[in-house]
Design a protein that fits this description.
Blueprint: H1 5-11, H2 16-32, E1 37-41, E2 46-51, E3 55-62, E4 67-71, E5 92-96, H3 104-119
Helix pairs in contact: 2-3
Length: 124
């Protein structure tokens, strides 16, 4: 999978390990849902993903030593194995420390749920 220049520019600021892990997570997201629109947000230092029907669903945040996969409405996602972390009012994230954390099945399961949640009509 080709990585756009703006993604590579963001990843150039990180260790080889974090850059590789971010590329792996990015590939998992886009392989799982090729219709996602990807946008680098330099101010947030993130790679954001929006779905055509569900809007903004998640973002990858490369950090020192790991990558956070942040879900916009993560507090509403089912999480029976308690893999999501965070204490904010809305977002939750998966902490990705190595390639096994960026497992296709796990990441896409959360992504599927986030997209389904975004497709639901808003309550009045």
């Amino acid at each position: 999978m080709t990585v756009p220049d703006d993604v590579e520019a963001l990843l150039a600021e990180h260790s080889d390990e974090v850059a590789a892990l971010t590329r792996r997570a990015r590939a998992v997201l886009l392989d799982g849902h090729p219709e996602l629109r990807e946008r680098v947000r330099r101010g947030w230092h993130s790679i954001n993903y929006a779905h055509p029907d569900a809007g903004f669903v998640c973002a990858l945040f490369p950090l020192a030593g790991h990558v956070q996969l942040v879900f916009e409405r993560g507090v509403l996602l089912p999480d029976p194995e308690r893999r999501l972390v965070g204490t904010g009012r809305t977002v939750r994230s998966l902490e990705l420390s190595d390639a096994t954390d960026a497992d296709l099945e796990v990441v896409v399961e959360y992504l599927d749920q986030a997209i389904a949640l975004g497709r639901r009509p808003a309550r009045a």
